Amino acid sequence: MDGFRALAYVGEDQTRLVSRNGNAFKRFTELACAIHIDLDCQAVLDDEIVILDDEGRPQFYELLRRRGRGEPAFYAFDVLWLDGEDLRERPLVERKALLRKLVPKQPCILLYADHIERNGTEFFRLTCDRDLEGIFADGIDIRQEPEGY
Hints:
The chain is of the alpha+beta class. It folds into two domains: 4-115, D-amino Acid Aminotransferase, Chain A, domain 1, CATH 3.30.470; 117-149, no CATH class. 25% of the residues lie in helices and 25% in strands. Strands 1, 2, 3, 4, 5 and 6 form a six-stranded mixed sheet that branches.
C-alpha cells in the first residue's frame, strides 16, 4: 500500500496513530477514533494509512494533499502486541491469524491486508503490471529479482 506507515496504539480510552519516526499523526484523529470504536481490545497494530480510489488502489497524492477526495483508511498488516502480550517473537502467520480475527468484516475504515503463501513471483509481476507500490516478502531470498525485472 502506498501511504503513510504507522503504528496504531489502541488503548483502553483512545487510539493513537504514530509515524515511523515516533511522531503522532494529529491530522488523522477521526481515523484513530473510528479504529478505536471498531476494535474491542488493547493492541499495537502495524499498518499503512491510505486513501483508496473506486477500484481499491491507494492514491498517495490524495493522501498527501488531503483535499477532501476520499476518506483515509487504515490497512493493518500485523499485530505486534495484544491485550498485554508481546507477539513479536511469534511467527508472522500466527500474528496474521490473530489480526484477521480482530479486523471487522467490511465495510469498515479498518482493513485487513491479506497475504498469499505461494506464487510470489506471479504476485510480484502482477504488482508491477498494475503499477502498485510493492510487496512484502517474508522468509524468502529477495536478493535476486525475478527474471525479466
